[in-house]
Specification:
single chain; five-stranded parallel beta sheet
Length: 230
């Protein structure tokens, strides 16, 4: 009888399993793909189109303003776009260092300043951005309104995440306007304290035809001052 012996000979590792290098390359590829997807998703989430502040109605809001093109664009950039970014929960699209807490429109014509302010407020309302417009005849009444409504807007932001544009109208009806002031009034100090840290989600807007009397301390604040010029 033919005696046959069988010997078990294990196959070499190269023939039965991927190399350590191939395994590492596989997992690195998977990881890179995951990171790529994450980056793409984050990038997508951060995008908020600039035209989010535009209105289709050419006879509404800032669309009615045929002059002051640079100022109109500035108001969209520093007031409407940040407000929409907050409203749409896209605050990651904003650069905190470039955010403005206040806007002052200056010029020689109260009528033109009021017209531009009204157009901005209408534009904001059309975009469904909450707006509060100051009331009161005396400085004391207006100051009281400011304290109450800024705090109310702050609470509204904390509870809902919705921003508020505070329309202060004529700045000279709130406090005395002087370039160099030895003492800043209580209400001016309060307005100056509105910022990203203490009162997030609030942007105030005002105007004055006393262009040469705007207090210089506003230059040290996140406040933009626009002068009307054709």
């Amino acid at each position: 009888m033919l005696n046959r012996r069988f010997m078990y000979m294990p196959a070499s590792q190269n023939n039965t399993a991927p190399s350590v290098g191939k395994i590492a390359l596989y997992f690195l590829t998977i990881a890179a793909a995951a990171v790529g997807i994450t980056i793409n998703n984050v990038g997508y989430m951060k995008k908020l189109p600039k035209n989010i502040v535009e209105l289709a109605d050419k006879n509404a809001g800032l669309n009615k303003i045929n002059k002051y093109e640079n100022i109109v664009e500035g108001l969209k950039k520093h007031v409407l776009y940040p407000s929409m970014a907050i409203l749409k929960k896209k605050e990651e699209t904003l650069n905190p260092r470039k955010l403005k807490s206040g806007i002052i429109l200056t010029g020689d014509s109260p009528e033109e300043l009021q017209k531009l302010t009204d157009a901005l407020i209408e534009h904001a309302q059309k975009l469904e951005i909450p707006v509060k417009t100051i009331k009161g005849k005396t400085k004391a009444e207006r100051a009281k309104w400011i304290y109450k409504n800024v705090k109310s807007a702050n609470n509204h932001y904390k509870n809902t995440g919705a921003p508020t544009i505070i329309n202060l109208e004529d700045l000279s009806k709130i406090a005395e306007l002087q370039i160099n002031k030895s003492k800043i009034s209580k209400v001016e100090n309060f307005i100056s304290g509105i910022n990203r840290k203490d009162y997030p989600g609030i942007i105030w807007v005002s105007w004055t035809d006393k262009s040469k009397s705007v207090p210089c301390f506003y230059n040290n604040l996140p406040v933009s001052i626009f002068k009307l010029s054709v």
